[in-house]
Request: fold
Amino acid sequence: MATEVERKINLDLETVVTEYDDDGRLKRQGNLVTASAHIITAVIGSGVLSLAWAIAQLGLVAGVIVLILFSFITLYTSRLLANSYRSPDPILGARNYTYMQAVRNNLGGTKYKVCGLFQYGSLVGVTIGYTVASSFSASAIKRSNCFHKHGHDADCHASNEVFMIWFGIIQIILSQVPNFHKLSGLSIIAAIMSFNYATIGLGLSIAKVVAGREHENPMTIEVTETNKQKMWNRFEAIGDIAFAYAYATVLIEIQDTLKSSPPENQVMKKASAIGVSITTIFYMSCGILGCLAFGNQAPGNFLTGFGFYEPFWLVDYANACIVVHLIGAYQVFSQPVYRLVEDWSNKQWPECEFIAREYPITIPLFGTWSLNLFRSIWRTMYVIVTTTLGVTFPFFNDVLGLFGAASFWPLTVYFPIEMHISQAKIPTYSFKWLWLRSLSLVCLVLSLIAAAASIQGIVKELKHYRPFNSVY
Reply:
């Protein structure tokens, strides 16, 4: 009898070891591939579409230098941030499940609150930006088909609001996915879509460069823009490039999906190197070739600049890939927001059945889905609010620049550097301390001027903007 009891205890212990991690949560299954897919999904977003415009504003040489500079900064600080997932020791320390928690445990309560303001404000802003960007691509498909059917003199303007609403409906459905761990498949699909539309954009740019671009277009910057406006555009372009590398806001959350062996920080550093390297190659290719193809006429969304001529189906397919990618990217950036509110609510009202109770529902071919009423209602309301804000303020380039500028310095540079200084106990005024603080200061200045330029652009757009009447 004693032997049977011991055997049962051993089996139970084996089950615990097999199914649960060291923190008592279900064992994480993420690996280098899934983490890289999450990063590529988060990084290669709508930001890639504005890079031809950004490089055109800065000039080809300066634009490439700025792009490479931001890629190195992002890669360097992401490696520092990866060490903050566990603290105080980056390998054996306790887990930090969110970016905010990492800041609280490394830097204290005041900076924890400031971090939360920037991080979740940025996450909400990105989801609004992705809602707007998806509508531009969907509208481009509708216009392309209209021109193909009725001729290029037809009035084929399309309302963006309708497509934003459809995007929101899809997000309401996908937002019912419980957590980040269930999004690996969606991220992999989204990453594939990003490669598809970036590759098509490259091919079309090469074809346009070979064919020679038209210079007669009266909408050139030299004709329509003053020197002062050119300066603002260059500053805004810096913000657009910063936005293109904005994934620090979800880095800790992505790292929390990884298996504990090998150490999470080692895998995350490799994933960051893979993700940032691949995206930088695509960014440079799309930005340089897009700039060469359009020159100073480069549009804010370079895929829409190829017109609606043959092969119209190829541009349609590229824009469809953008929409699918942004559907996945929206979820990657919104999951931390969902988790923040739900964890806080569970902590505040642990006995509330409306918040805590799960209702298992069997769905044919998909298995069992756990319905939580609070989660479903709260996430639906979040999507409705972000969709409404996207419909109200559909300023693509200005919005991207503002969100990029507002989030880049604090989240990609300042907090990772400060946590590294604290965790590694770097002596004050040592060479490394001075280097890290100087890097932070330079990035702060860049963020401030980019934010000012984006705000100026939004104010300019508002002068002739009519709410709920966005037409592409």
User: Anything to note?
Assistant: The radius of gyration is 23 Å. Residues 11-16, 214-224 have pLDDT under 50 and may be disordered.
